[in-house]
Write a structure and sequence with these properties.
The protein is an alpha+beta fold. The chain has two helices and five strands.
C-alpha cells in the first residue's frame, strides 16, 4: 500500500498473519512508513498492508469455493459412484516396494 493511500481510521489487513485492524497512528521509522493497528497495538510496514475490504472479498470467494467442493464430495459419497468404486477393489493395502 502506498503512503498516499494510508489514512487514520482505515481498515487494513496484514496478509502474512491475517491480522486485520484499523489504523490508529502512522509513524516514520528509519525511512520506512509504519502504521499501528488497533487490534494488536503493533506497527506494521505500510507497504505490506492491504485494504481490508479487498481481503474480505477474497476470503469470501475462497469459502464459497470450499462449500461448492464439499457439496460435490457429499453428493458423490451419497450416490452410487462411491459404492461402485468400492466394489471394484480387493480391500488390500499394497504400498509397493
Amino acid at each position: 500500500m502506498l503512503a498516499e493511500e494510508i489514512a487514520l481510521g482505515m481498515r487494513v489487513r496484514y496478509p502474512r498473519t491475517g491480522t486485520t485492524g484499523t489504523i490508529t497512528r502512522v509513524e516514520q521509522v528509519r525511512g520506512d512508513l509504519f502504521a499501528e493497528l488497533d487490534s494488536t497495538h503493533l506497527l506494521y510496514r505500510a507497504d505490506q498492508l492491504i485494504p481490508a475490504d479487498r481481503a474480505e472479498r477474497a476470503s469470501r470467494a475462497i469459502v464459497e469455493d470450499a462449500k461448492t467442493v464439499i457439496e460435490r464430495e457429499r453428493e458423490f459419497a451419497a450416490g452410487s459412484g462411491l459404492q461402485d468404486a468400492l466394489k471394484n477393489i480387493d480391500q488390500s493395502c499394497e504400498g509397493g516396494g
